[in-house]
Amino acid sequence: MTPSVTPIYAAVLALLFVALSMRVIGLRFRRRVSLGDGGDAELMQRIRAQANCAEYAPFGVLLLLIAELTGAPVWALHLSGLCLLAGRLAHGVALSGRMKFALRKTGMVLTFTSICLSAILGLI
């Protein structure tokens, strides 16, 4: 079985990660901070947005792939993939700008929903 759903979400999440990374790189360049956050609160938020994506997206994509390879229904895979993508996007936006706690919370709820759904789909 060749995966057809997971690659879509993996690719879009990779592009989101690159966008978050470019925001960090651009601010590092403008603020002349090579390592760490240089005590800059805005840079610290952007670094955390990028790192948080790097921490959760690969795990979510891996679970989505396992669910797909075990024969989960396509609609459920898309539901999980959309939750993961929307969650990472919401969380990234919340951490990249002014901390919007409600958006950050929504992002984590969607991400955890995706992880749990994919895990359950992979088990059944």
Major beta sheet summary: none
Let me know the average pLDDT: 93
Number of domains: 1
Helical run tally: 4
Helix content: over 70%
Strand content: under 5%
Distance between the termini: 17 Å
What's the shape? elongated
CATH superfamily: Membrane associated eicosanoid/glutathione metabolism-like domain
CA radius of gyration: 16 Å
Overview of this structure, please?
With 124 residues, the protein is mainly alpha-helical. It has one domain: Up-down Bundle (Four Helix Bundle (Hemerythrin (Met), subunit A)), CATH 1.20.120. It contains 4 helices and no strands. It has helices at residues 6-31, 41-69, 74-96, 101-123. The chain is elongated, with a radius of gyration of 16 Å.
Features:
elongated; 124 residues; 4 helices; mainly alpha
What is the fold's blueprint, element by element?
Elements: H1 6-31, H2 41-69, H3 74-96, H4 101-123
Helix pairs in contact: 1-2, 1-3, 2-3, 2-4, 3-4
Task: Kindly summarize this structure in a few lines.
The protein has 124 residues and is mostly helical.
